[in-house]
Amino acid sequence: MSTVNDHATSHPVPYSTGDSKITETTIAEMRELAARYPVGRSALLPMLHLVQSVEGRVTPEGIEACADVLGLTGAEVSAVATFYTMYKRRPVGEYHVGVCTNTLCAVMGGDLIFERLKRHLDVGNDETTEDGKITLEHIECNAACDYAPVMTVNWEFFDDMTPESATQLVDDLREGTEVKSPRGATICSWREAERVLAGFPDGRADEGPTGGKASLAGLRLARERNWTAPNGNGGAPAPLDPVPGPRPEDQPGRESQAVHTDDSRKED
Amino acid sequence: MLTPVLSDNWDQINAWQLSSYQRTGGYDALRTALRMQPADVVTAVKDSGLRGRGGAGFPTGMKWSFIPQDNPKPKYLVVNADESEPGTCKDIPLMMASPHTLVEGVIISSYAIRASVAFIYVRGEVLHVIRRLQQAVQEAKDAGFIGTNILGTGYDLDVVVHAGAGAYICGEETALLDSLEGRRGQPRLRPPFPAVAGLYGCPTVINNVESIASVPAIIKNGADWFSSMGTEKSKGMTLYSLSGHVTRPGQYEAPMGITLRQLIDLAGGVRDGHELKFWTPGGSSTPLLTAEHLDVPLDYEGVGSVGSMLGTKALQIFDETTCVVRAVLRWTEFYKHESCGKCTPCREGTWWLVQILERLEHGKGTEEDLVTLLDLCENITGRSFCALADGATAPISSSIQHFKDEYLAHFAEGGCPFDPMASTVFATAGANA
């Protein structure tokens, strides 16, 4: 499984391609971000997310724009942009697809899923399909280990994956079928996601469930067995609906793949 | 057996919204806190015995009391929501399901240390969690819980949700501060500690999400209530995260000191037909334990007494189908990738560790390599600014301690004796890669 960490790719990092989409609006939004902090430079990470949302990658023009707004040199901004894994120097596809291959997910099947996807998409790690739709990357632990093996699309969770569900997922993305995260929203484009990360909400926080099945595993057991924390000053932190009833993720239209998984491991 | 407090509202409809949170008593604790003197809030948290849930277990109230209130500079609260330690998956579901629990804790904690601005530094790779945090902060602003003259008390606070950009090292508190200042996330030399010179050189408290989220319940129910749960030196309830080869992985909120045997039992046992081989008590940076440690109380002292650390209570369960050398190699590759490069022992050492472990996993190593590996670990541990490199050596030295024969078997067989398919969740489903 040593091929997982093949970072090397022969594709050169493109320098300016002369088609920067940075506008006065972008600059104004950069200034707005800087104004949110006691010291403007704190906005550099959000500003670089904003550059990616506009440019599809971190471009030389984007770096210069950040530098201008913050009174830094381009080299100072580059030093930051090259430190963080989420900032990409090469153009990213419409969908960034991540496969966790850190130990737990790898052991649970992440390595096999990643190998399958590389073959299925005919790309290597951190490479983009020819149609520009999908950039595939093996990612580090994404804090969803109780749903292993885990994948992400534009940093939304896809839980309890298999090689089959993984290939189906990328096929759906390439064909333009609407795809929903089992613990998130309908999948937007990578650029739209980057704009949210920059600090400009897209109003979609109310989509999706409170959590998947694993998040609620202990709570459900406690409800079944009437286990609660001790009573405090403010009275018992009793549940509003102590009798088993419809749960948020059981509501129509709130299905979670994680809840309706056919993975018998979780039900036995 | 289980004591849901932080997770208690996670089964409520739209638990992430302000209206739902308030239906279950949300923001009552804030009103209580704002009627107290800030110093009394600090005392309450001190008395509760709450210890940092990010891994180190430092007493939260004591950390707050280190803030020099006679220092004229602004004070800051920074929430470490950069949950990235392999195996750790408690803060993300908490913020997804009930971001207001954290936001209410942020406001109370900021009031206690007299901070005027608080930051929630959340890792960038969790889009929907960021959406919910952004919305929760906006709802709290609209409701008058954040802003100027909060609830008519004259207290002003701004809260900023800040997304990181993919760097494990930023979970280290001083690296997080550099990152939040718009720099490469590299740890700082201490002292000075952040309480004296933190963000922008000002007094700063940095706490884990779960620590801050525990504060409203402490204020609401009392320090004694909190300390009635748990063990002598490890108080309260906490989120234990079970992952890997168990029947029902997930979040289990229990009093400090529950054992892995009890937790695995609650989670329906190790997956059918298999047995526990090794586990991490608190993420990959905590030395591995085995089946002989099933009855160790999972509190700071109990896990420490068997040579590991409670860490983040990230219980990663591996059964007998898992090759420990493969597991350790992959973690080591992770540390190599995430080393920030500031300190030589870590920057160079993690590369050497990977090279040797690769050789071992592929059956091309020798017994002498094991000696070299342990020698390297000794030379790396404790010789860097932060604990990343210490964490990198933990799985290596502990796995050699418990599973030396398995390393040797790789030499004897000229390769890995395990079938990687056997350890997957779809091994029995007939799927092939």
TrEMBL record, chain A:
Transmembrane helix as a keyword of this entry, yes or no, is no
Heme as a keyword? no
Pfam families reported in the protein's UniProt record: 2Fe-2S_thioredx
Region ranges (Disordered):
221-268
**Record's signal peptide:** none
A GO molecular function term, named singly, is: NADH dehydrogenase activity
Which InterPro entries does the annotation name? NuoE-like, NuoE_dom, NuoE_N, Thioredoxin-like_sf
EC class: oxidoreductase
Q: Which UniProt keywords apply?
A: 2Fe-2S, Iron, Iron-sulfur, Metal-binding, Oxidoreductase
Q: Which residues cross the membrane?
A: none
Q: Which cofactor does it need?
A: [2Fe-2S] cluster
Q: What is its EC number?
A: 1.6.5.11
The UniProt entry, under Gene3D superfamilies, shows: Glutaredoxin, NADH-quinone oxidoreductase subunit E
Say which family it is in: Belongs to the complex I 24 kDa subunit family.
Record protein name field: NADH-quinone oxidoreductase subunit NuoE
What is the scientific name of the source organism? Answer: Kribbella albertanoniae
Q: Gene encoding this polypeptide?
A: nuoE
